[in-house]
């Protein structure tokens, strides 16, 4: 039981919540509900929806696979090395996504540092491809996984690892069977945050993967284009994005936030 | 750098631990014979837990050696280091550290391939009905038993218990001591027990190593240490009353015929009993009511030890009592004064000489 706050706090909080809700309500107000079925059946919309869901889920999964090992190492590092590594891993979250997309082009573009040799060896061309969308999404989502997981690992009592080792478990088994299951809640949170970031990703995607309907045009890009040409379609797609995000967050019942 | 001269029989554990942590230096030499249980006592920050961590390899030795059953498992001089999970030690932590995402059964099975449901140890520690529970849903006493069983099921050559009873209430402690003792007797060839409670050391250990400031300040049986404490800290903590006698039912007869009542039953043969001086009550008039142990004694000496007055009394028994300085002045205690001394039967701890 917490002590009650003065009434003014409640009024203030109410105003802030209302301020956040107002644009969403305004958007819902303008949605052409009678035509929504027809709008959402348009090929461009269906393609963008499927593309967004698929790429954001793959990106979230990839970010978890790449981010958890980094967080495990980072949580055992101290001092300036840790600060530099953590800053590097956080950068894609802070940078304007367009800059991130441009940086990806210089690295993985056809003339990029790694991109050209990648094409020579495997024939794989990342920019303006579906894989490029996933790469851009993973790039911006990765910091959420690393930071959330590292925080959870640092707050885990290190003696659980000692207890497991005293029972004869090697470090791999300790990690897989004790450490990671113990922070399961935070890993779910990390995955959801990464997925949410990937689903909304715009700047890095359009810079690195372009805006080709049916192959690299995700929902946010399609909404942006439709705002110029067909506002009703843009509104319909926005409703879908809002509903999907809200459903997931409510369904997870706050388990998506690590502090809970 | 060779280990120390091997004695007969070969000790189970033979170690000289030297560990540096900043300003703190831990320097402890210890041999544990097969079947022996050693209690480690000492003030906070004396290095008790560090010593256990060093044996496990979690704190690297600066110098010294660790031999278990004659095999070198760590010796910086010989570049020898067996990784912690390969050392045949088991450890029970003070707060159990049961894995919270697992059931009791999964916790127990973590370090062993033994069939948990049919394990005699699980039955001995009364865990059979708890196996499907979440580990975190148990009481402190139950968690303690699960932690002990989880460690013993891995069949370590030696087990370390760090404050095994600290989280239990007094009645739970007495029961837990019995269970730990029988589990240790059945399962392990040697044990180290870190404890703050002389009663634990008395009930569970064959000898006591007292650590103060990173080195051993006294080593011996609890009786020797209690009667001849080497430092003020030991005197204040384990300056207990010890009596040898012959058990008979629930009471013990001392050599001079004095009977001391206990809360045990079925006592036979030679036993040692221990009484905490804080449990010895003093009265100017004969106490009425339940105490079965009451004697009229005369004050020999009164010394102040910190906040307490230690009163030495002689009469049918020679016994120490620790009372607060204010109580001592209220009773107007002085040398030669005759007083009634009483001890509740439940405050008399009994250790069989031949368990």
Could you characterize the architecture of this molecule?
The complex is a heterodimer of chains A (260) and B (355). Chain A is mainly alpha-helical and 260 residues long. Helices cover 76% and strands 0% of the residues of chain A. Chain A is globular, with a radius of gyration of 21 Å. The model of chain A has no long low-confidence stretch (mean pLDDT 91). By secondary structure, chain B is an alpha+beta fold. Chain B folds into two domains: 13-238, P-loop containing nucleotide triphosphate hydrolases (Rossmann fold, 3-Layer(aba) Sandwich); 241-352, RNA polymerase II/Efflux pump adaptor protein, barrel-sandwich hybrid domain (OB fold (Dihydrolipoamide Acetyltransferase, E2P), Beta Barrel). Chain B has helices at 48-56, 104-109, 120-124, 140-152, 170-187, 198-204, 222-227, 232-238, 325-330, and strands spanning 13-21, 24-32, 37-41, 63-68, 71-75, 80-81, 89-92, 158-162, 191-194, 207-212, 215-220, 241-249, 251-254, 259-261, 267-275, 281-283, 293-305, 308-314, 319-324, 338-343, 348-352. A six-stranded mixed β-sheet of chain B has the order 7-8-9-3-10-11, with helices on both faces. A five-stranded antiparallel β-sheet of chain B has the order 2-1-4-5-6, with helices on one face. In chain B, strand 5 and strand 6 (80-81) form a beta hairpin. The interface between A and B is medium-sized, with 18 and 21 residues.
């Amino acid at each position: 039981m917490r002590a009650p706050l003065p009434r003014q706090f409640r009024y203030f909080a109410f105003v802030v919540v209302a301020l956040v809700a107002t644009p969403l309500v305004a958007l819902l107000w303008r949605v052409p509900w009678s035509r929504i079925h027809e709008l959402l059946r348009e090929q461009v919309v269906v393609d963008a929806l499927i593309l967004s869901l698929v790429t954001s889920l793959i990106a979230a999964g990839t970010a978890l696979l790449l981010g958890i090992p980094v967080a495990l190492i980072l949580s055992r590092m101290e001092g300036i090395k840790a600060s530099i590594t953590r800053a590097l891993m956080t950068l894609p979250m802070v940078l304007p996504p367009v800059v991130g997309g441009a940086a990806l082009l210089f690295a993985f573009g056809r003339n990029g540092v790694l991109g050209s040799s990648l094409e020579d060896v495997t024939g794989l061309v990342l920019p303006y491809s579906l894989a490029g969308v996933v790469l851009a999404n993973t790039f911006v989502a990765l910091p959420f996984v690393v930071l959330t997981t590292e925080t959870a690992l640092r707050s885990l009592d290190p003696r659980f690892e000692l207890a497991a080792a005293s029972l004869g478990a090697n470090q791999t088994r300790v990690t897989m069977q004790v450490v990671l299951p113990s922070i399961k809640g935070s890993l779910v949170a990390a995955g959801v945050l990464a997925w949410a970031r990937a689903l909304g990703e715009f700047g890095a995607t359009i810079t690195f993967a372009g805006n080709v309907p049916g192959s690299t045009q995700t929902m946010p890009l399609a909404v942006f284009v439709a705002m110029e040409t067909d506002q009703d379609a843009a509104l319909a797609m926005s409703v879908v994005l809002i509903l999907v995000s809200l459903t997931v967050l409510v369904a997870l019942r706050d388990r998506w936030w690590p502090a809970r | 750098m060779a280990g120390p001269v091997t004695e007969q029989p070969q000790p189970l554990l033979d170690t000289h631990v030297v560990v540096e942590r900043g300003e703190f230096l831990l320097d402890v030499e210890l041999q544990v014979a097969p079947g022996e249980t050693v209690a480690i006592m000492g003030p906070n920050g004396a290095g008790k837990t560090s010593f256990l961590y060093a044996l496990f390899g979690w704190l690297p030795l600066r110098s010294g050696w660790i031999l278990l059953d004659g095999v070198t498992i760590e010796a910086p001089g010989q570049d020898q280091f067996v990784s912690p999970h390969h050392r045949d030690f088991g450890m029970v932590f003070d707060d159990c550290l049961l894995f919270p995402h697992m059931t009791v059964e999964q916790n127990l099975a973590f370090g062993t391939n033994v069939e948990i449901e049919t394990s005699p140890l699980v039955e001995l520690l009364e865990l059979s009905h708890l196996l499907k529970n979440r580990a975190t849903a148990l009481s402190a006493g139950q968690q303690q038993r699960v932690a002990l069983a989880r460690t013993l099921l891995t069949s370590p050559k030696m087990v370390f218990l760090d404050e095994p009873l600290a989280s239990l209430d007094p009645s739970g402690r007495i029961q837990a001591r019995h269970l730990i003792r029988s589990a240790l007797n059945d399962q392990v060839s040697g044990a180290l027990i870190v404890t703050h409670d002389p009663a634990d050391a008395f009930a569970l250990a064959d000898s006591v190593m007292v650590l103060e400031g990173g080195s051993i300040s006294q080593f011996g049986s609890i009786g020797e240490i209690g009667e001849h404490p080497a430092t003020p800290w030991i005197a204040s903590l384990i300056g207990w009353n010890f009596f040898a006698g012959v058990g008979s039912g629930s009471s013990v007869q001392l050599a001079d015929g004095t009977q001391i009542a206990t809360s045990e039953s079925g006592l036979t043969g030679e036993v040692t009993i221990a009484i905490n001086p804080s449990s010895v009550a003093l009265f100017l008039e004969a106490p009425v009511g339940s105490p079965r142990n009451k004697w009229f004694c005369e004050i020999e000496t009164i010394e102040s030890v910190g906040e307490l007055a230690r009163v030495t009394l002689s009469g049918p028994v020679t016994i120490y009592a620790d009372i607060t300085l204010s109580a001592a002045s209220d009773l107007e205690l002085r040398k030669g004064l005759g007083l009634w001394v009483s001890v509740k039967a439940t405050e008399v701890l009994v250790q069989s000489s031949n368990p």
